[in-house]
TrEMBL record:
Recorded GO MF terms: DNA binding
Protein source organism: Streptomyces thermodiastaticus
Source organism phylogeny: Bacteria, Bacillati, Actinomycetota, Actinomycetes, Kitasatosporales
Span of domain IclR-ED: 68-213
PANTHER family: HELIX-TURN-HELIX TRANSCRIPTIONAL REGULATOR, ICLR FAMILY, HTH-TYPE TRANSCRIPTIONAL REPRESSOR ALLR
Protein name: DNA-binding IclR family transcriptional regulator
Residue ranges occupied by any HTH iclR-type domain in the UniProt entry: 6-67
Length: 213
């Protein structure tokens, strides 16, 4: 801590991070141990966060992230989209295919930003807001593959005809972005994905990740 920071705010944010990292919630005692503060401090932090609906406590007394974080989360997608657009635009123009940024939303993949190439005679129409299961399409499969791979080894995923007949997809996961799980990719009308496309989407995913850090 420095003279310019707030210890109470820091502790409150740490509480939210701890709760976000668990599916079953945490007790006051558990939070007290993890934060290294006494239970009275934790009670005060939770009471304040509850007033803003950022934390809720179940009947057993375990604290969990509250629905109030959803109101904050609604503003995340526009910020992520804005940061990703330069890399997506470059990718779309370079490859001549529709580029997209896809994020995890529950058990689905959600396209939050899409850029279509300006110079092609035809390309796949794709829209922001499009959803599909994580286990179908290159965007979702790249995310799932990243969960199984070692850090620093993103690789890329190729698919054909899984979301649209005759369309190929290539996608690479975002790596090293805290709190964001997603992928960058392209979709094109082709029998096979050209060899250079895989490496190019990995490069674009790296650029987007750097913009989000």
């Amino acid at each position: 801590m420095t003279a310019e920071t707030s210890q109470t705010l820091d502790r409150g944010l740490r509480v939210l991070k701890l709760l976000a990292d668990t599916d079953h919630g945490l007790t006051v005692t558990e939070l007290s141990h993890k934060l290294g503060v006494n239970r009275t401090v934790v009670y005060r932090l939770l009471a304040t966060l509850e007033q803003h609906a950022l934390v809720r406590r179940d009947l057993g007394g375990r604290a969990r992230v509250g629905l109030g974080v959803l109101r904050l989360g609604r503003q995340v997608h526009p910020l992520v989209r804005e940061a990703a657009m330069p890399a997506l635009r470059s990718l779309a123009e370079d490859i001549g295919a529709t580029a997209h940024l896809t994020l995890v939303d529950g058990a689905e993949a959600l396209a939050v930003a899409v850029v279509e190439p300006s110079w092609t005679d035809y390309h796949v129409a794709y829209r922001a807001g499009f959803r599909h299961p994580l286990d179908r399409g290159a965007a979702g499969k790249a995310i799932l593959a990243a969960r199984q791979k070692a850090p620093g080894d993103p690789g890329y995923t190729l698919t054909h005809g899984e979301l649209e007949t005759g369309a190929c997809g290539a996608a690479a996961p975002l790596v090293g972005v805290t709190g964001v799980e997603g992928s960058v990719g392209v979709v094109m009308l082709a029998e096979v994905v050209p060899e250079r496309v895989g490496k190019r989407v990995v490069e674009a995913a790296r650029e987007v990740a750097e913009a989000l850090r």
